[in-house]
Design goal:
This protein has about 500 residues and is mainly beta. The protein has 4 domains: about 140 residues, no CATH class; about 80 residues, Sandwich (Immunoglobulin-like), CATH 2.60.40; about 90 residues, Immunoglobulin-like; about 150 residues, Porin (Beta Barrel), CATH 2.40.160. It contains 5 helices and 31 strands. The radius of gyration is 57 Å and the shape is rod-shaped.
């Protein structure tokens, strides 16, 4: 049993070696026409007659290419032979061919490793066939119409393929734009041309395989066309230019409106800055930034809003000259230029003149009447209610003020006073929420006909503090004492406690 297996293995190996030797052995071909693939009797072999022969026997040609192991060359040969240039030439004696198709008993056969060993050169047609960027030679002996493969294979130069990638496709003014042609193939050189929407050429740039990228920018909004071209190793341009379009965003347009200009008496009152009139030519407003600057140019407050109606309401607590800067941003991130319509300088002034109304309780000094005549020695005090109106004005805001007021007070009972009229002109010093004032005043006479209660001047002194301050209106509580000038002090001094409202 073991001997039988060994014999079989030996025979198989011998067949393999014999077959390999058969393939490697060169067959010497000494004459043509014994085993023909196809003949055209009575006609001189021409490219036209050969083309007709192969088209008529296309199935046999296909079978032959498949048997030869070059099935991939069948379709290129059948297609390109129609337009290819057929070279009428001869093969010298000793020329070898990888394979040749022929027919035997009407069956397509393949002979391999053929050497022309005839006495003279072999007349042939040579047809170039291109496949996968290689050029093969198909050799057709004139006398038999057989098809053979030549040994000459030429590598063809691949045409350049242009590839262009531009990022980003939409950008803002002066944003970097990257032009990338690294995806181009078989290119010796690449060029980039930029034109605007009207077709006007703006710039060109040469790129190479080692530096296929270029970065540029645009300082004006609009659409731009970027065209790329690849030059191949054969110095031929790629078929069709590759191109891309870049859109440079139009920046938004800022418009600013304020609720006052100038802003007189606006300390403590809200001022509205309104950018709702802003617009964007190719998008929409997405954000507004307000910056408030003082007279020295320092930013003292900022407001960022991302919602309509794009306004900011600001209350100023101090008078002065201010500047409002406004910048609007669109949905692509572009911002409006810092131009005059969105930079306004304005003055905010503090209210200086107020009307005043004051009221409270007063205490009046006087003399008791005896038989209708006031006592010269005994004194008394009368409790009264008073009401005054007047004016208040700042001399120096928050430091010095002037008040002018007048009114009357009515005692609740007793004598000698039935009704008293007073008037004051005071200078006040303010220390935070507290104030002290003095000046000159006048008091009316009582109904008693004596020298102690006559019309006369007073020296009023007031001290108080601020209850509230809304800049355009204020509330004060004050304590007052009035000393008579040129009259009996004991019979004419007056004091009071009151509340004053300024508006």
């Amino acid at each position: 049993m073991k001997l039988r297996k060994s014999v079989i293995l030996f025979v198989a190996m011998a067949l393999v070696v014999f077959t390999a030797m058969s393939f490697a052995q060169t067959t010497k071909l000494k004459r043509i026409g014994l085993y023909t693939f196809g003949t055209i009797k009575g006609q001189e072999p021409t490219p036209a007659t050969m083309k007709g022969l192969f088209e008529a026997h296309a199935a046999d040609v296909k079978t032959g290419f498949e048997l030869a192991g070059n099935a991939e060359l069948y379709e290129p040969f059948m297609e390109q032979m129609k337009t290819a240039e057929w070279t009428d030439t001869t093969l010298p004696v000793g020329t070898t061919l990888p394979w040749m198709l022929f027919k035997s008993h009407n069956q397509v056969k393949v002979a391999r490793n053929i050497e022309w060993a005839g006495k003279e050169a072999l007349p042939v047609f040579i047809v170039p066939v291109k496949k996968d960027w290689k050029q093969y030679e198909i050799i057709i002996p004139k006398g038999c119409g057989n098809i053979a493969l030549g040994t000459k294979v030429v590598d063809l130069i691949r045409p350049a393929i242009c590839n262009l990638v531009v990022t980003p496709a939409r950008a803002n003014i002066n944003d970097p734009i990257t032009i990338d042609m690294s995806g181009s193939l078989e290119a010796r050189l690449m060029t980039v041309e930029i034109t605007d929407a009207q077709g006007q050429k703006l710039s060109t740039q040469e790129l190479g395989p080692q530096s296929p990228k270029w970065q540029t920018k645009f300082d004006k909004p609009g659409e731009y066309i970027i065209k790329g071209l690849a030059i191949g190793m054969d110095n031929k341009p790629s078929v069709g230019a590759c191109s891309a379009k870049v859109t440079i965003n139009f920046p938004p347009i800022c418009k600013l409106w304020t609720s006052c200009m100038p802003c007189e008496d606006y300390v403590g009152r809200p001022i509205t800055f309104d950018a709702s009139g802003s617009s964007d030519p190719d998008g929409e407003i997405a954000k507004v930034v307000f910056e408030l600057l003082d007279a020295s140019g320092n930013v003292i407050d900022t407001c960022v809003t991302t919602r309509k109606p794009w306004t900011w309401e600001k209350v100023f607590t101090k008078p002065g000259t201010y500047t409002i800067n406004t910048t609007v941003f669109d949905n692509d991130g572009a911002q409006s230029p810092a131009s005059d319509p969105c930079r306004l300088t304005f003055e905010v002034t503090q209210k200086k003149l107020f009307w005043t109304v004051a009221g409270g309780l007063a205490l009046h000094a006087g003399a008791e009447s005896v038989g209708g005549v006031p006592s010269l020695t005994d004194t008394t005090q009368q409790l009264a209610g008073f009401l005054r109106v007047g004016l208040f004005t700042w001399i120096t805001p928050d430091k010095w003020s002037f008040t002018l007021s007048g009114g009357g007070s009515i005692p609740f009972s007793g004598s000698p006073w039935k009704i008293v009229f007073t008037g004051d002109a005071l200078i006040n010093g303010h220390f935070g929420g507290f104030f002290v004032g003095t000046g000159v005043g006048v008091s009316s006479a009582s109904q008693a006909t004596d020298d102690n209660h006559k019309l006369g001047l007073d020296l009023p002194v007031q001290a108080g503090f601020q209850i509230f301050d809304k800049w355009t209106s204020k509330g004060q509580m004050f304590l007052e004492f009035r000393a008579p000038i040129g009259r009996s002090f004991d019979h004419n001094w007056k004091s009071g406690l009151g509340v004053r409202f300024l508006f």
